[in-house]
Predict the 3D structure of the following.
Amino acid sequence: MKPVAIVGAGALSAYGLGWKGMGKKVVAGALLAAPLAESGRSHPGIISAEVGALPEARSPAEKRARGLMSRSALLAALAGRSVMEEAGWAGHAGDLGYFLGVGASCGDFAVIEAIVRASVEPDPGGQPVFSTPRFGERGLRACNPLFAFQLMNNFTLCHSAIQEGTTGPNAAFFSRGTGTVMALGEAVCALAEGTCTRALAGGADSAVYPMTLSEIMRQGWLQRGLIPAEGAGILALSADETGALGFVHDWAIQSCRGRSRALAMTALLARLGPHVAAADLVVLVPWGPPCHEELLLGHERLRRSGARVVDLSASLGHALAAAPALGWIAALDMVAHEGAEHALIISAGLDGDLGAVVMGRRGSA
Amino acid sequence: MSQAVITGVGVVSPFGVGAPCFWDALAQGRSAIRPISSFDARTLPSRMAGEVPVVDADAAWLREQAAALMTAAKSDAGTAALLGRIEQAAPSWQELGMLRDRKVAFAILAALEAWQDARLGPADTHAWLCLALGLERALLDDFLPLMTGGPAPDGRIDWSREPDAGLPATRFRAPVDVASTQVADILGLTGPVVVHTSACAAGALAVMHAASLIERGTADIVVCGASDSMLNPMGMGGMCRLGAPSPRNEPDACRPFDRRRDGLVMGEGAAVFVVEHEDRALGRGVTPLARIAGWGSTQDGYKATAPRPDGAPARKAMQAALARGRLLPGHVGYINAHGTGTLLNDPVEARAIRDAFGHAADHLPVSSIKGAVGHLMAASGAMELAACLMAFDRDLLPGTAHHHDRDPECPIHVIGPTPLAARVDAVLSNSFGFGGQNASVILQRWESRA
C-alpha cells in the first residue's frame, strides 16, 4: 500500500476540542473520568469520560443547524470543522470524500420522554398504557417535524458533510469499533483508486447517551471495566503530501468470529508484517482492562521490539465508534510532535473484532 | 472489466418471501401497496405501505418461512444444517426480544435464500458480510414501566426502575447490528462483518462495497445487501412528521414522476446477494446472474431537508459508475430510478439523468418500483438491484406503478405501469438518500467469455 498523507486532524474528547498534546496526555495515562454530568440524572454514580463544554455556535444559522443534530452529530460536526480548518480545506470542500464510523441513534432524550408522555392513556382499569392511536394523535406532535434528522444514524456523517459542503465518495458505517477502521480503510482505498484526491475519515459517538448506557450496562460491559466515553476524531487524508503531519502506511481488520481474540491478534500482527517490528509506539484502544490483557499477547512481541505501549482507554475510557479514531489521533500527536517514528494503533471494540492502523512520520520506509 | 459477479439472490418483499414471487409480481405489473396491518396505524396521517405480508414476524413465522425456502431449494446436508440452526436459535431470539424488529427476520430469510441460490456451503464461510441496515426500531412502550408518577405519570424516566421492570433483553430500541450478527451466525460466517448505515443509499453502497472488496483482492466472496423496516409507530410517525409520505391513503399513494405525485409511500423488506470473484464462481460451476460493472457515490453536501436542486452530485454519481465500468451512456439500456414520488426528488433525478446521459436519455427507459413496493429506506437500493436482475433473467423491464401522466418537469422516458419487454445488456440503479448520500450501480448481463 502506498502511504497516504495525513494533513490535518480534528478531535473532541474529555480533553476538550483539539488534538495537539493529546498523545502526551494519553502516554501520561491519567484517567480523565468523573461521575456523569449531563446524563447524571439518568444514571447517577456512573463514571464516564464526557466531553465538556462545547464551543458556542458561530452564527444563528449554525445554531439552527445544531437543533437538528444528535449529540454524536454535533461532536462530528465540531471535529469536522476543526480538521477542515487545520487542513486549509474550509470553504473548499469540493469532491472531498467522507467516511465515518457512527454509533446508534441518540436523539434528544427529552423529546423522546415528551413523545412517550403524550402517548400514555389509562386503560379500562385505570392503569397507564402506551397507546399507539394516542401516539399518532398527540405523541407525534410532541416532537419537532425534523426530529427524524436527529435519529438517523447517517446524519452523524451528513450534518457535518452539509456543514462543510463535501460532495465526494462517502459512507457511514455502524461501528462498535471495527466499522471506524473500515471507514479509514475505505478512505485510503478511495485515494488509492483516484476516486477522490482528499478525504476525511474517522468516528463519532457517545456512550453516555441514556439508551446506549442502558444497553452497555445490561450487556455487562461496565461491570467488566468499560468506562463509557464520548468524542469524535477525524483525520484529513490527501494524495498531496505537502504539509503532511504523518502518513497512514497500512490498515487491517481482523474478524474474531470462530477464533479466540488471542489467535485473531496473532493473525492481525502477521498480516501487518514488518510494520510490527518497526513500531516504536503502540497505542492500544481496548474496550476495557480485560480486553487490554487479551491484546497483551501481541504486546509481548512488541515489547521485544522496544516499542512504547500505551492504552488510550486507560485515559479516555471507550467512546465506541469514536474510540479507534481518537487512538489514531493520539498516535498522530506523538508522530508529529513527540518524535515517534512508526506507530501501530490496535483497537478492539464491543463488536468483538480487531482493527489496526499503521502510522509513520515519513511517507517511505 | 470488473470481476465482481452476483451468483445468488434472496428477497423478502411486500409481495412475499422469495425472489421468484418478487419478480413474478413485478412482471405482472402488480402493486403491493395496501393499508398497514402489522400495527394500529389508524391515527397516523399516512396509513398505506408496502408491507411484507405478515402481521408478526416472530420465531414461528421465521421458522416456517425458512423451512419453505429450504424445501424449495436443493435439499442436502448443508441445507439441513442451516435450517437446524434457525430451528434452534429462533425461540431464544424471540425470548430475548431480538425479533421485535421485523428487519431481523427479513434479513435472515433473504440471506438464507441467497446462500442457497449461490449453492454455497462450508467452504465459503470465510465470506465477508456487508449488510446495510436501517435505523433501530424504537420500542417506546418499554419506557412506561420506568416512568414516575403512577397513573398520571409526570413523564420522567427513572432508569433505576429498569432492572425490576420485567422487560425483554432487547428493550427501548432494537440495536442496529442485531440482523447482521444473526445472519453471520446462521450462515456460520467467519469473515469481517460490515454494517452500512447510509439511509436510502445504504443498500447500494453495501453492494458497491462488496464489488470493491472483490476488485481489490481483499475478498473473494461477500454476502451483501440490505434489510429495513420502518413500519412501526416511531418509524412511520417520524416520516409523517417530516411530511415525506403522500397524504392520500390510497393504493396509488406513490406516483413516481407523475404530474399528480404528492409523496412517497413507505415499504419494508430485504434483498441479499452473494458477490464473488468471477473466476471463483466459474470454478465452482456456477453461472453468474450479473456482473457488477460500475459504481459511484457522491454527496449533495447541501441541506438536510432537500436534494441539491441542480442534481449535479447525483449526475456525478451516475457518471462515476459509467466511468468505472468503462461504459458510454448509450451502453445502458435501462435505469431503475430512485424515483420516490416526492415533489422534490423526481425532477432533480430526472435532470441529473438527462445531464448524465445527454441525448441517450431521449429513449432510455426509466422506471421506479417504489410505486409498487414502497420506499424501503436502507433496503431500497438492494431491492431495486434485485429488480434489475429481472431485466437479464426475463428480458423484461419493471414498470412504474401508478404512473399515468408524466410531469413535464421530469423530461425522461418513463415506463408506465406495464413492464416493458426489452433485451438490455446494462442497467443502472440510483439510490439517493436522506442527508444527500448518492449511489449509482451498474449491472451488466453476464456472458461467458469462453
